[in-house]
Write a structure and sequence with these properties.
The protein is an all-alpha fold and 92 residues long. The protein has three helices and no strands. The protein has a domain at 27-71. Helices cover 78% and strands 0% of the residues. The chain is elongated and about 100 Å long. It starts with a helix and ends with a helix.
């Protein structure tokens, strides 16, 4: 059971290092602007993910509707055969 504790230690160390790096980055000239850009990027990626999930649902709905339309349309063999109109010579 020592392994999970060791993994937690590694993750805790990584989190601490990440916080240190972020604080140092914020102190650099233009660092705050870079952090703001990263946060905006994260938000945009989240929004994009939500939209993509919405597109998948729409694609499924379109596929269902296409199946329904295909089931309702008659195939050429099922249509009534066309008859040629009789010419005036044939009707006499």
């Amino acid at each position: 059971m020592a392994k999970p504790k060791k993994e937690k230690d590694v993750l805790a160390r990584l989190a601490t290092r990440g916080e240190d790096v972020l604080s140092k980055l914020a102190e650099l000239p233009g660092g705050a602007k870079a952090l703001k850009a990263f946060n905006e990027l994260r938000e945009r990626v989240d929004e994009l993910g939500k939209k993509v999930r919405g597109i998948e649902a729409l694609e499924e709905r379109v596929a269902q509707l296409e199946k329904q339309v295909a089931a309702q349309t008659l195939k050429p063999a099922e249509r009534a055969p066309r008859t040629k109109p009789k010419s005036p010579a044939e009707s006499s």
